[in-house]
Design goal:
InterPro entries: Methyltranfer_dom (IPR025714), SAM-binding_MTase (IPR053173), SAM-dependent_MTases_sf (IPR029063), WH-like_DNA-bd_sf (IPR036388), WH_DNA-bd_sf (IPR036390), WHD_Rv2258c (IPR048711). By secondary structure, the chain is of the alpha/beta class. It contains 16 helices and nine strands.
Amino acid sequence: MNTATLKPKDPVAIASELLNILNHGALSLMISIGHRTQLFDVMANLPPATSDTIAEAAGLNERYVREWLGAMVVGGIVTYHPDDRTYQLPSEYAAFLTRQATPNNMAVTMQFIPVLAQVEDEIIRCFQQGGGLPYTAYPRFHEVMAEDSGQGVVAVLDEAILPLVPGLTAKLSDGIKVLDVGCGSGRAISKLAQLYPRSQFIGVDFSETAIALARSQAQGLGLNNLKFEVQDAANLNFEQPFDLITAFDAIHDQAYPDLVLKSIYENLEDQGIFLMQDIRASRDVHENLDHPARTFLYTISCLHCMSVSLANNGAGLGTVWGEETALEMLKETGFEQIAVKQLPHDPMNNFYIVQKTTH
């Protein structure tokens, strides 16, 4: 069994390790900037080029681009040719840093670091006084989350996620009623509505801002089988039950996840399916020592997921609530048939395939 104890280290080795952490933290911030300014995308389509050429191609200020390139070179991301002072993004790195790299674009996820840093002062006050921060305290979080889920979930919905549920794509093609809980800006449910015009889709979220954005984006799609509503997930209000209810990375954030799961159960048809995507991890910290994103998960939990729940006097489950807790809560809700599946390309998520059966 893994243990959470650290082996004694030489003080020099500890100092060196901490300096590496500082450098990597700084590099993650610069990678985020490279993504937002599209510098990686520009460089991926250029031969070795000077900072002037790169800046001109990206429409950016050369002096800032040159300094950014310096960070990329010493960080081991960009190759520098001193003879002609040119820079090149190797194709091996471009495969994980450009918008063409979906769903492998790690630069998207790097954006969470500066976004979370914006609330450090407020989170420290929560450490001192308790409570949490509301969703409104995070101005770019949902934008980044939508982009992240857009490449990790939406981009592979039809080819990878839906096939996890036997016969689901056929039912969607024939026409069923679908609800997406915690839909955010509605990217996932909008794609489903485009793919399956015979089915009816509703997305719900308690955020009026998110629903307004979802409606605005959906207008351009011209879909008559899709609508969005502002609703409290813990008290869903629909006249008819649904054949399929989805929740993509949404349950652990809820103030009252037990009530949300109960509401989902009550709004699901007998033999209906609840498809829940959530973080693949354990609730026991020593079992997460080898998780590929172990530190990031606890950090995003502390600075966002746990905090937004506690802001509403909620359970504060946090990102790393664990597969054990998820299964216990699903069973306590009344679900009996539960399967947990993973995708080969996705080390971050579990997909819970849950069928409602009444006796």
